[in-house]
Amino acid sequence: ALPGHLLRGLLPLLTIFRLERAEGAARRAGLSTQPIWRQLWDDVMKTRPPNSENITCWRKKFLETFFANVLHGVLDISSDWRLNDRHFSPLLHSSPHVSQLTLCNMLQGAVELAAEHNHKVLENLAGSLRILKFQHLLSSDQSIRRSLVLLLHRLIHHGSVSQVSMYSWPVPDTVLLVLILTMSAGFWRSGNALSYQCGLCREEDKAPRQELVQERAERGCDAEREGSDGENQKGFSEAPEEADAHLNSVLSVPRSSPLRNQPCEEASSKGPYDQTSIQGGSSSHCGSGQLSCHPVLRKTRRRLKPTTGRKRRCLRRSRGPYADPEDLYDFVFTVAREDNSGLLDKTSTTEGENTENCTGSSPGSPCTGHAGCKKRGGPAGIFSLKAAHRFRSVSTLELFSIPLTGETCRTLSNLLSSWVSLENLVLSYNGLDANICCILSGLRALSRHPDCHLRVLRVSDVFSHMPCMELVRCILSAFPQLHTLSVSFDLKNQLEGNRPEGNPSCSEPEIPESCLEQLEIRFPREPLHTTFLLPVLKASKSLQQLSLDSATLPCSQELGLLLEALKECTPNLKKLSFHDVNLAEHQKEVLLLLQDPVLQEITFSFCRLFESSTAEFLSEIINTVKRNSSLKSLKLPGNRLGNHRLVALADIFSEDSSSSLCQLDVSSNCIKPDGLLEFTKKLEGHIQQRGGQIQFTHLRLFQNWLDQDAETAQEALRRLKAVCSVVNDSWDSSQAFADYISVM
Length: 744
What we know:
Layout: H1 4-10, H2 16-21, H3 23-28, H4 34-45, H5 58-71, H6 90-94, E1 100-105, H7 108-114, H8 119-128, E2 131-137, H9 142-157, E3 163-167, H10 174-184, E4 187-189, H11 199-205, H12 240-250, H13 264-270, H14 327-337, E5 388-390, E6 396-400, H15 406-416, E7 424-428, H16 436-447, E8 456-464, H17 468-478, E9 484-492, E10 518-522, H18 530-539, E11 545-549, H19 558-569, E12 575-579, H20 587-594, E13 601-605, H21 615-627, E14 633-635, H22 642-649, E15 663-665, H23 673-689, E16 698-700, H24 710-721, E17 725-727, H25 736-742
Parallel strand pairs: 1-2, 2-3, 3-6, 6-7, 7-8, 8-9, 9-10, 10-11, 11-12, 12-13, 13-14, 14-15, 15-16, 16-17
Antiparallel strand pairs: 4-5
Helix pairs in contact: 4-5, 7-9, 8-9, 9-10, 10-14, 10-15, 15-16, 16-17, 17-18, 18-19, 20-21, 22-23, 23-24
């Protein structure tokens, strides 16, 4: 053990391998290695990390980024002497610090991690990795997909990954996309589908198991066999050899099946699904080009068990460590085409629940209004996969800028219908259009599972298939358990002629009482009609946050009607936000909101508050806020405050004020350095008059004209930071005039 002063001088001279080993000794000596890791970042990475002010551990940040750069071949470890150590294995020694990993392009990283020589690296990642991201993926061959299977099986099914995110995949490979989605949901087929021997599955397979073989003679077909009874009974209904044989007969498609996206309607025309089979009538029939038909049970004896935190074993392999090269293709392509045949949850087969309502579809009818997504018998989205096993699944799924075809949406709907561990679902710019009905069908089926955990849903896209409020009501009708719902669209769908007419929409039934706490709606320049929002508010008594973005007010009374509805229906509303809503002619309503005794945070973002106002309006705002002791945060970005209005706002904190305002956001308000300095001086005076007793803690100043006089700006910021926390940026105000003109 070295003395502290010697250790302090020695630490900067160590390689990262030795520095890691000395971490415990430094901590015991009361020394921090953070400055050394930060210097390592600057010297090796040579970039400024995003949100560097929020990084709490530079050791973890460096080693996590180091791992990714070495994995993707963008960092040469011979470039710095501190990276060179004969005892140091870059991937092995940095992997325990990796909680987030991104795989790109041809999945070279997945191939490397799945290699035998990186077995210990993969084991480390299974314990540390929480977020797995895929970005800019390209098509892949069988060998690459086998490596991905191994990786996902170890990191998700037997690991700790809780979030899978996919970004920017303009032309997705259907097989690869469905593979990632399916394994993220915890599904995978048994036996030879995995191209390697999973040691964990093999160990679990040695445990005593109870075989339950149940015969049901229904239309001369064998019924589904259940393989478990209770959490500790992990048996299967068939022996491994029987299961593999059954698997090949159930999950098989012609080897010549092309990789193409067929809409649901085409599939239904080739293989019609007879609804009477659910009621005990004649069995369904399939076209010659489709999958073989499976018997449909009226009900299962037990509900599906929750998958989070549980591991289900694979069946024993009988043909060695490598599978038929086409097994993977068979499984993925079959998942994409499988349509609601197989397991039906007991709670999902009650009379009157065989179909789901979407806009343009009445009860008992298929989901129409688009070329795809026709539902056939039984609740849409029930995922069968008779011979596949259920492993641990992720709790967060995010899909950004990935076009989803009708076939892929149907697959996702099937997965969602029993994905009980899923807590957060983000679908952003996926070109869903009318296929949103498929997704809603799966969510409706999921909502009937008693172990369902989904609480956050975010949907955004360029075009809206239906009016925003109608979609919100559809979603809440299908899934009232949601706590957070965000719906965002850029533009209206111009193809109004394609929308169904004459059929009742899903918004007609009354919305059940929901658990909604946060609602965000971005309108594609649609009118905000309170009459359409009112049923949502009435059903959401627990609503605490409401955000309305890019809406137009159809008449001068509309905002007043909205405020009345909020006061009547949402007694617990704490945060209210308006963005890009023209409130220039609604000064009375703005003042009413600012004096609300319940609201704690109010945002008027780019709302043109002072476009046609007088000095009296600003004085009324200040006096109203001074008297409101419940308001904690006031955000006014993009309202053209300018210097003089900013200086006036300092009076909110005057000696006679009872305000409890803690946060003030004046970003994008054409504020210059001299105006900020004057505001600072006035604020200091008020604080001095109040004996230093002030609750103001945060000021946001993004995108203001502070670069026009750097010296004055620095003085103002220095004095402000003695009073509160200031968040600003280095913004080029040369673009400000163009921005100003663009919003005039």
